[in-house]
């Protein structure tokens, strides 16, 4: 045992991916002081993607005041990776659901304009390659708000600009690209998209994700019809048929906007992050991989960090251990996807608040015990 790669996601609401990796490394160092420990915090395209990519590339963070989902000013962060040309934009930072109090959530009117403003700020800083993480959105506007911030005009039959929000797209008659930022033609976008929903229909953006953003059944119908109109006008005037493409419905239809207006491709968020972090390079001479996230369960297999890490590790025939804040009863399915063993941090029944407060200590304890097992196994060989 010479080298262990530690590549976890964050434990949501408690520990960042960087903190999780560091705590696990400390615990392993206490039992295996002579082993090289490589910490690579990662993410799956949602919360924490910016931090994982900026930290792994020695990049920089930048602040920008933008329009929040309801038009209020929001101080949001975007990142520039160490290469100086790749920007990391987290939609959630500017247009995220967490920015809207539950009582005010209304996808008929929420806008993704702030995300477009972050992109414009990155363009001003010289970025020409973009990683756009679109998890956690509060919007259902098809990315129209984002495109408005970049110069696109969405007009009704009278030539008037449509108001913000998804509902107004029902009245879309013309898409004016004459003022679209010309720098976008030089840019390449990778869109972190972990769902395969189309833009419209029973599996579309409005039907599947609208309710969690505050949509009533009546709102869902209104929004779905509006996005269908949006897709029709894009098809007729932009020449791109995005309505039924897998992933077009991600982030309230922002996937569709990226396909229609950017030079872009939709990819699994974890694949984008692992490529950017160059995890494969570190795995080539590793002996063991440790990964994890806040909860390990049956949903983990759907593009989440531990499975992405495990699948890459198996290309090098490496054993993989996953540590979770907690485990669900359906967790055993992860063993079919490359994770050899799972451990949880909660060592006794306790209230959620207590578990969250003790996350660091609990993680260190379980990681130390896992490391002790590895150390014993090494002595037995």
UniProtKB/TrEMBL annotation:
GO MF assignments: glycerate kinase activity
One GO BP: organic acid phosphorylation
InterPro entries the record matches: Glyc_kinase_flavodox-like_fold (IPR018193), Glycerate_kinase (IPR004381), Glycerate_kinase_RE-like (IPR018197), Glycerate_kinase_sf (IPR036129)
A Pfam family annotated for this UniProt entry: Gly_kinase
Domain of life: Bacteria
Keywords of this entry: Kinase, Transferase
NCBIfam families: glycerate kinase (TIGR00045)
Family per similarity comment: Belongs to the glycerate kinase type-1 family.
Protein name (Swiss-Prot/TrEMBL): Glycerate kinase
Species name: Deefgea piscis
């Amino acid at each position: 045992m010479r080298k262990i790669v530690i590549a976890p996601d964050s434990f949501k609401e408690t520990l960042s991916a960087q903190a999780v990796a560091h705590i696990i490394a400390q615990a392993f160092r206490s039992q295996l002081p002579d082993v090289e420990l490589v910490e690579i915090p990662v993410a799956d395209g949602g919360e924490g993607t910016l931090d994982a990519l900026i930290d792994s590339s020695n990049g920089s963070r930048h602040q920008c005041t933008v329009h929040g989902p309801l038009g209020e000013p929001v101080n949001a962060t975007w990142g520039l990776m160490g290469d100086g040309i790749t920007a990391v934009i987290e939609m959630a930072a500017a247009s995220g659901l967490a920015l809207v109090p539950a009582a005010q959530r209304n996808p008929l009117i929420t806008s993704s304009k702030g995300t477009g403003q972050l992109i414009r700020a990155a363009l001003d800083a010289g970025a020409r390659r973009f990683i756009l993480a679109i998890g956690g959105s509060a919007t259902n506007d098809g990315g129209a708000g984002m495109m408005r911030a970049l110069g696109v005009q969405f007009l009704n039959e009278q030539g008037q600009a449509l108001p913000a929000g998804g509902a107004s797209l029902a009245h879309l008659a013309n898409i004016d690209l004459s003022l679209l930022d010309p720098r976008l033609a030089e840019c390449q976008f990778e869109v972190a998209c972990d769902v395969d929903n189309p833009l419209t229909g029973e599996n579309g953006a409005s039907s599947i994700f609208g309710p969690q953003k505050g949509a009533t059944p009546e709102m869902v119908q209104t929004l779905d019809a509006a996005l269908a109109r949006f897709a029709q006008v894009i098809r007729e005037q932009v020449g791109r048929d995005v309505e039924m493409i897998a992933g077009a419905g991600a982030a309230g239809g922002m996937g569709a906007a990226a396909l229609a207006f950017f030079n872009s491709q939709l990819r699994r968020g974890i694949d984008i992050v692992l490529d950017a972090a160059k995890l494969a390079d570190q795995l080539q001479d590793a002996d063991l991989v440790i990964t994890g996230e806040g909860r390990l369960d049956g949903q983990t297999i759907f593009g989440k960090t531990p499975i992405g890490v495990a699948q890459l590790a198996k290309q090098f025939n490496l054993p993989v251990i996953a540590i979770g804040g907690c485990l669900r009863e359906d967790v055993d399915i992860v063993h079919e996807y490359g994770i050899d063993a799972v451990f949880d941090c909660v060592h006794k029944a306790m209230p959620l608040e207590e578990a969250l407060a003790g996350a660091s200590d609990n993680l260190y304890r379980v990681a130390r015990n896992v490391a002790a097992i590895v150390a014993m196994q090494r002595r037995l060989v």
